Amino acid sequence: MNFIKRVLSTVTGIFVFLGICIVLLIVFGLVFGSSSEELVKVKPNSVLDLKLDFPIKDYAGKTEFEQYEFLNKDDKNGLFNIIDAIHYAAVDDKIKGISIDNNFINAGISQTKAIRDALIKFKESGKFVTAYADIYSQKDYYLSSVADTVFMNPAGMMEFKGLSSEQLYFKDFQEKTGLKMEVVRFGKYKSAVEPFLENEMSEANREQVEVFLNSIWSEIKSEISESRGISTEQLNIIADSLLARNATLAQQAKLIDKIAYHDEYLAGLKKATGTEPSKMQEMVSIFDYAEYAATNMLTDYSKNKIAVIYAEGEIIYGEGDEGAVGQGVMTKSLQEARNNDKIKAVVLRINSPGGSALASELIWREIELTKKVKPVIVSMGNVAASGGYYIACNADKIIAEPTTITGSIGVFGMLPNGNALATNMGINAEQVSTNKNSVTYSFFEPLNDAQHDFIKEEIISIYELFTGRVAEGRGMEQDAVKEIAQGRVWTGSDALKIGLVDELGGLDLALKYAAEAAGISEYNIKEFPIYKRDLDKILRQFGLTEAKEDIMKEELGEEVYSLLKKVKTMTQRKGIQLLVPYSLDIK
Fold first, then answer.
1. Which residue among the candidates 76, 113, 180, 190 is catalytic per the annotation?
2. Which of 59, 75, 89, 77 is nearest to 379 (CA)?
3. Residue 464 in contact with residue 369, Cβ under 8 Å?
4. Which residues does UniProt call coiled coil (predicted)?
5. pLDDT digits (tens, 9 = 90+) for 531-558
6. Which of 217, 283, 546, 551 gives a 20 to 30 Å CA spacing to 168?
7. pLDDT score of 490 more than 50
């Protein structure tokens, strides 16, 4: 009788599970299906509203649900979607100009430069670019300075003061709290861990920060100077004396053209487009227009493809996702590009501060294998440092933006330690082990000399491997690499001078070299990674439903379910097996 009850309960549970899934799929279908049908419409005499206040990634990402294709997502709000949209707007008769209106851009310096370059090219069409702000941040003004006319609110403010950075130091904090970081590093410039070792910035770190800040500031000044017709020397004077901190001063300094209220600015847009004063000015957001442009851009079909593989985020050991670079998705992407005969070359777009040394090495290996079959060109974004440079160094050619942060060829290890904190709280940890080094690390015990030496050995070994990879990839002597390494950070401009990169430019230049190396003149782009998703797994994570296995386990009991699973596994085995003769379950 109990068995029949359990069977009925199981069947009922499965039907409930399937019912919940069907309802959820219908809901998802309605939500996603309806949004996909809402096509963006651009009306004649429109102005493109370049408001970039959402987080801008190089690659918006493409997600596929294998079992539920209607949930697939291919967003078009990445950096290069925005750039493509600006290029398309230049030839779109419905777009009369671009307005940068109270922007508050949410992008890095190199990304901002790439968008700025696209706006300069857009102006060649003869269409206008205007800018307005109540408050200009330094980065917003850098972008807006390209405009034909720069407006500012009469009560507005401008931040134009040069670049700075601030670093917090925690040595005293660690001693007072008893919670510290055990640090082993190699390279005098490897400053990522310095705040845990010192109370003040080291001279070496101060030197490198000053150098790369001045390099970036020099690039920003140079471009603003060209757009506004103001010498770089005068721009420094304006920054030093804060001579553009309000609208009146900014106009006197010639950083802006007109002081106006927002309604007056909008009236000016109507005049520029020939819109009647009594009518609303047609506007289309860059977010919507990027989707529209991607749908309507006419590209000549070519059997030749160039794969653009995005490595964006911290490098982690694992699969990886939209926010992290894992060797899992990178390996799949590189292997597909390598084995696809239609793909003639690979461009690796890197925007990563580095991370796992092991994952970096595994990705490096896949690039090395790919390079033997097809050209591999690297395009660097905001940052391609440490592990980010590791996965770049063996490419056939490396292209960086002048403002890219790169280099940082150094290694460190860091472990949290709460020994003093635990002691202060009356906590004592006791270990029992079978061998001398069974306990390699404990949060509750400080590292002993032997443990510290083991970690340092590994750090030095990885540093030797890292510098060796760079030397091999860049055609340099390893000692020469070590001279410019030591964990030091460089901008793209300075990295060019010391041989870490080959040329300055953006993704477009990297694609040009990739095509030349592959010997093709016409091609289409195929973007990677494509992220695979399991809807059932996602639903379980959010507690929306239970998997069939979970329901069966609950209804039948752990032991009965395990027995059924073993029987099923045995019936599925085919061919010769390399398998232990019994189950091992050591507890």
1. 190
2. 59
3. no
4. none
5. 876 655 555 555 544 555 665 665 566 6
6. 217
7. yes
Q: What distance in Å separates the CA atoms of residue 251 and residue 158, rounded to the nearest whole number?
A: 11
CA dist., res. 295 & res. 276, Å (int): 30
Asked whether the CA dihedral 418, 419, 422, 428 is positive or negative, the reply is positive
**CB neighbour list of residue 45: distance below 8 Å, 6 or more residues apart:** 94, 96, 273, 274, 275, 282
3-state secondary structure of 376: strand
Catalytic annotation, pick one of 386, 397, 408, 493 = 386
End-to-end alpha-carbon separation of the chain, Å? 35
* Cβ(85)–Cβ(122) below 8 Å: no
Beta bridge partners of 399: 379, 503
Encoded tokens for 560: 């009965």
190 an active-site residue? Answer: yes
Amino acid at 539: L
Q: Judge whether 124 and 397 are in contact, CB under 8 Å.
A: no
The pLDDT tens digits for 27-57 are 444 444 444 345 788 999 999 999 999 899 9
Mean pLDDT, the chain, integer = 86
Q: How does 220-246 read in b/e, with b if 16+ C-beta sit within 10 Å?
A: bbebbbebbebebeebeebbeeebbbb
Tokens of 491: 């901008």
Residue 497: active-site member? no
* Averaged pLDDT, 337-355: 96
Closest CA to 137 of 171, 174, 112, 154: 112
Give φ, ψ of 49 to 5 degrees.
-90, 105
Q: 396, 377 in Cβ contact below 8 A?
A: yes
CA distance 432 to 63: 47
Q: Please choose, from the candidates 393, 388, 396, 394, the residue with its C-alpha nearest in 3D space to the C-alpha of residue 359.
A: 388
Distance CA 458, CA 185 (A): 10
